[in-house]
Amino acid sequence: MTLKLVNEKIKIGTLKRVGDTHWNSHFYSICSMMKLYNASCLVLQKIIVDGLTYSQRGDVDAVFNRLSSFQFILILHMMKEIMGIIECLCQALKKQSQDILNVLEKWHQEGGG
């Protein structure tokens, strides 16, 4: 696989800015990360094989090992669920819906939990 092809695969989505502190930006960052997961792994694997220096290849290999660990993937999925609930609550509160129990019930009925 050429580096150009890998770069094209990575363009399937974009990560949101980390500096944006609104709750929904965190949720969408996690969703973007999940969408880009496979393409990111391909890029890392390409660098592991074709990296310019031994040090670069070793650093990227360590990152790839962490990124592909069960712990990282589990936490990523848990964060998506948690941030999805928070996003739902924030949207309801923005609409001046102060009844949290009704919001949670609606979220549950929509397949959230």
List keywords for this structure.
single chain; mainly alpha; 5 helices; elongated
What topology emerges from the helices and strands here?
Elements lengths: L2 H8 L12 H28 L3 H14 L2 H25 L5 H10 L4
Helix pairs in contact: 1-2, 2-3, 2-4, 4-5
Number of helices: 5
Q: How would you spell out the order of helices and strands?
A: HHHHH
Helix share, percent: over 70%
Report the sheet with the most strands, covering strand number, pairing sense and barrel closure: none
Global geometry: elongated
- Supply the number of structural domains: 1
- How much of the sequence lies in strands comes to under 5%
Global Rg: 18 Å
User: How many strand elements?
Assistant: 0
Q: Could you tell me how far the N terminus lies from the C terminus, measured between alpha carbons in angstroms?
A: 40 Å
Low-pLDDT parts are 15-21
Mean pLDDT comes to: 79
**Sheet/helix structural class:** mainly alpha
In terms of quaternary structure, what is this? single chain
Give a brief rundown of this model:
The protein contains five helices and no strands.
Word description of this protein:
With 113 residues, the chain is mainly α. The chain has one domain (3-109). The chain has helices at 3-10, 23-50, 54-67, 70-94, 100-109.
